[in-house]
Write a structure and sequence with these properties.
Layout lengths: L12 H6 L5 H4 L6 E7 L9 E6 L2 E2 L3 H9 L10 E2 L25 E2 L1 E4 L3 H9 L34 E5 L9 E5 H15 L15 H11 L3 E7 L14 H14 L3 E5 L5 H13 L8 E3 L7 H8 L4 E7 L24 H7 L6 E6 L11 H7 L3 H4 L7 E4 L3 H17 L1 H7 L18 H13 L13 E2 L2 E2 H15 L3
Length: about 500
């Protein structure tokens, strides 16, 4: 017989209590509640099964301290693997399906889940062994090894301070994420870079601080199916498409593919499908993309029911420099020119997402007339010229305002890289399973050389900067090598690429 001793989260409870964190199961005189999730553990030989978690609810004000303490105890399963609603873990709420007793949450409590040693028991059951002995829940071996202790300021032996962030919009089951404070610092540096109003377009009044990080966290954690919408046919001459939007969308396609997205769609106006297909093929040939995304259009003939059913299958919808109708249903340029006949109703997907409990949405824009800018509707009217005529009527969960929309796409891709490079966030999003994989920065943000090649290819396809009197290597009236190249370099440097 061979004996295995596995760590247990009971080993961290003394540390939690010492920080003044209430333990509801102790207060109620019951065993800690445990749940079987739908998360598969990494198989090893005959051993396989689903992750079991223990749950300790606590006030939101104690979340950071609980993470700080448990992070110091890797043998007691370390940090939580989920904070928030249990539905994100696929837990079956049917009575009798769970292990242990249900605990009563106090008002304001947030469920916090740690990996549980009972997972091994599930693996033993699945191994169909002739003979194996185990413990009953809550009846454990107590050894004489003492647990660690943290410093009073919550810092750790490696000097890392970990933050907890609630990122889900109110219509979705609540969820939090974990990352090091260095991620927030990088995100704030990225925001400063994209918020500098180099075009004097009064964008500072349209900024929602912190949404860049929230959007990046939501995409990092939920990205199985992603749709990215772009296209603003503001150029008077055919093919009408401008150079802002598509390069940022390409960067985001590459980034979510690097995250492991199973399906990535590019939503565009139907007249641009052929040109956008050529752009993606070019990007694959030049190493800007590893593979193309699936191009899809949205028709006025699509029923609301069909759109709702389709959108509910997506984890993320991202709009970057995507034309939005105003409250009267008219698509306008910044000069209030009506371009409705050139725009397909892609915003219907974003409106449908606001009605479900599965899909998170992000809008990236630079003027006030893009999808997502309805979040700052009053500011667009008050501060942007012709704001009352051009203002967007389409809301998103997160809004990333940038001096140039492409820059917002680059910053979001860079934020995704920073999160993947963070070992604490990596641990949390993979539920503590497996090992941290160091991300390849080339998969998350294009180089200046690659973006220059892409912009030249867009010019070759007659996709050009509508603010320039003639075709040029420019975006939004600013020359690429003078303005955009240094900004791309700065965005890459902000996350150490």
């Amino acid at each position: 017989m061979v004996t295995f001793y596995l760590g247990c989260t009971f080993g961290l409870e003394h540390a939690l209590v010492s920080r003044g964190i209430p333990l509801r199961h102790r207060e109620q005189g019951i065993n800690v509640p445990m749940f079987k999730t739908s998360v598969d553990v990494l198989p090893c030989g005959v051993f396989r099964g689903e992750l079991v978690v223990s749950m300790r609810p606590m006030p939101e004000s104690h979340l950071a301290a609980s993470v700080a303490e448990s992070r110091l105890l890797p043998r007691a399963h370390g940090m939580p693997v989920h904070i928030g609603d249990r539905t994100w873990l696929g837990i079956d709420n049917t009575p009798g399906k769970n292990i242990g007793q249900d605990v009563v949450l106090a008002d304001g409590d947030v469920p916090v889940f740690w990996a549980c040693g009972f997972t091994a028991q599930i693996a033993l059951d699945n191994a169909d062994m002739d003979l194996a002995f185990s413990h009953s829940p809550g009846s454990l071996f107590v050894c004489d090894t003492l647990s660690n202790a943290s410093s009073d300021d919550g810092s750790h032996s490696d000097g890392v301070v970990v933050e907890v962030l609630k990122f889900t919009p109110p219509r979705l089951p609540v969820a939090y994420s974990i990352f090091s404070s260095g991620v927030r610092a990088r995100s704030e540096q990225l925001e400063a870079l994209i918020h500098e109003d180099v075009g004097n377009r009064r964008i500072r009044s349209l900024i929602v601080d912190g949404d860049l990080l929230k959007s990046a966290v939501s995409i990092s954690e939920h990205h199985r199916r992603v749709a990215i919408a772009t296209g603003f046919p503001a150029v008077p001459d055919p093919p009408h498409e401008e150079t802002d939007g598509l390069p940022g969308a390409i960067a985001l396609i590459h980034a979510v593919q690097a995250l492991g997205a199973e399906e990535v769609f590019l939503l565009c106006d139907s007249p641009m499908t052929q040109a956008f297909s050529k752009v993606m093929e070019f990007c694959v040939a030049e190493g800007i993309l590893e593979r193309t995304a699936t191009i899809r259009c949205v028709s006025a003939q699509d029923t609301d029911e069909d759109i709702a059913a389709t959108v509910a299958k997506f984890d993320q919808l991202i709009a970057i420099e995507r034309a939005s109708p105003n409250p009267q249903g008219v698509y306008c340029t910044m000069s209030a020119r009506d371009i409705s006949e050139l725009c397909d109703p892609i915003e219907r997907w974003f409106r449908a997402a606001q009605q479900n409990s599965t899909t998170m949405t992000t809008g990236i824009g630079d003027g006030g007339n893009e999808v997502g800018m309805a979040n700052v509707h009053e500011h667009v009217i008050d501060f942007i010229p012709l704001g009352e005529k051009i203002v967007s009527s389409v809301h998103t969960d997160y809004l990333i305002t940038a001096a140039v929309s492409n820059w917002g796409g680059y910053a979001l891709a860079a934020s995704l890289y920073a999160l993947q490079a963070c070992q604490d966030h990596s641990y949390y999003k993979r539920f503590g399973l497996g090992e941290h994989a160091v991300p390849d920065p080339a998969h998350f943000l294009p180089s200046v050389e690659q973006e220059a090649k892409l912009l030249q290819h867009l010019n070759d396809l007659q996709i050009r900067d509508g603010r320039m009197p003639e075709q040029a290597m420019s975006v939004d009236g600013m020359l690429f090598h003078n303005i955009h190249a240094p900004r791309i370099t700065a965005i890459r440097a902000a996350v150490s690429i």
